[in-house]
Amino acid sequence: MLTNKSKINTGLRLLILLLLSGLIPLILTGCVEKELINDPTTGSILPTKNSESLMDGQYSAATKYYDARGYAQQLNILIKNGVITRVNLKEIDKNKADRLTVEGSDKTWANLAVANLGSLYLRLYNELMLSQNPDEIDAISGATQTSERYVKLSVAILNNATKGDHEPIKIDTLDTYSITSAADHDGYQGLLQASFNGSTLVSLNYDEIITEDGKSKRKSTDPSTSTEFNALFDTITETAITSQSLESPFPANEPSPEKAKYGECLRLLREARAPF
Length: 276
Known about the structure:
elongated
């Protein structure tokens, strides 16, 4: 026979069970779920403000050129029920290898908010999946180029998704390359720095230096020599910007060591600046 105290305890247990049975579905399908766009546990897809403007399908965008590190970025986004449901970013080198599979030290970081390249990608994916808005993605210090290109590719894709245009697209980027030639018999190396806005060459600077002691032909201690080299280097780089050509203006057997090294730097720049 149950005592009064036992009856009270049994009643409390029943009350708790009833409350839990009512709260669990609420947690799973109610207020908590409404804070999520795509619940990684349940796989739920919930409507957002974009759901009426984004048309379903697979969309792709990539950068037009390989960057100074030797990678092009390609982003694929799947939209279902007007919601971004799957995201995949690849950085691809000239051998068509995925950066994640390439050996090297540029995929782990000791002092960043993310520990490695895989974690960086996952964070970018989650921010876009949850916010559904590229403008709400924060660039990660130390990995700003990858972050910013991910945002720019996302914006381009969503612009296409509003029109239902599934054609893969290429986007313009800002790129700066530093090219160094082999040293001549005096130890001077050609140093070419080029900046592009999309397909447009916007700045080009050339000098010849000795890396070990920092000597520069543009900054020669002999005023007449410095003037001569500054005039030559300014003329050849201005010609390239005006013509928008990365081809050497000098013959292959050019006897001038400065002109020959400049031509070699342009060749290396063309290789680095290859279209994707």
